């Protein structure tokens, strides 16, 4: 806890980490929205820039899971993870944007790979 | 749907109708994503209690996967909070857009503050689509019935799925955890309002490997802000060309 990173060495620290790192920086924006509902223009350039950075942040996490995963995800080869995401996106686009079909296609790639490994 | 008179319902009736909304397609898709989130938490090495606690107090799924990502990357608390804060900034314009629709003449601010905790993409879209069929003085009841139930059900599901996964082979856990990136990539692409939003998905992903080598521990922040800025100005450039051409 010396570097203020997550660790479960102290039982209450993970919950403080979640509250200060997750709850506070999320709910404060929701509350701000309630109290300033008449003063903020959600179509402004600033709001548009905020949306773009928020999307890019999530994209960075997606990339972390695809390129540098840990645990069980790391047991799936990088090439399969990349193909799985690409297949999911292609199925999503071809099915006129049905998320469930995208997820299904991506999981089929992983399932197919697992089957090949089991048979080999 | 015909534009008939809204049926007469009591407040409890509207709460119940809102609760039934958890079986609507967007809510079911979100629930699928929470199966993946439970897998992700298990991968990150946090406990099931922490995963469920996080679901209840943060609720917004992008904020949570950034928080889990920060935990995995060993990011310090201030940097993690900053990254989550940047991602959750979009809550303000969402709530701002929702308030005039939800507020009735007698609605208390404390009620709205409480209900705002349950605002995230799914509940927001659900409410904005259906509010015109709900009488104004019943909208908080309808929204609360839906959104609070959605949060509660998914919190319980995260706890159950996390524990059931102990019985699964590692590969199945990995496949389940991979639901998260696919869900977010497709849903963010589908809901992007402009070119910048779509570009941001590719720029943020492309920037991560570089940021991973340049600034370990801060890679999410660096890639997120860097990729976001490139996407924002790139989007403006493309829009400008389209207008001229």
Automatic annotation (TrEMBL), chain A:
InterPro entries to which the protein is assigned, alphabetical: Brnchd-chn_aa_trnsp_AzlD (IPR008407)
Segment forming the signal sequence: none
Keyword Lipid metabolism among UniProt keywords: no
Membrane-crossing segments per the record: 12-29, 49-68, 74-92, 99-119
Pfam families: AzlD
Alphabetically ordered keywords of this record: Membrane, Transmembrane, Transmembrane helix
Annotated protein name in UniProt: AzlD domain-containing protein
Upper lineage: Bacteria, Pseudomonadati, Pseudomonadota, Alphaproteobacteria, Hyphomicrobiales
TrEMBL record, chain B:
Membrane-crossing residue ranges in chain numbering: 12-39, 111-128, 140-162, 168-188, 220-238
One Pfam assignment: AzlC
InterPro entries associated with the record: Brnchd-chn_aa_trnsp_permease
Protein name according to UniProt: Branched-chain amino acid ABC transporter permease
Domain of life: Bacteria
The entry's keywords: Membrane, Transmembrane, Transmembrane helix
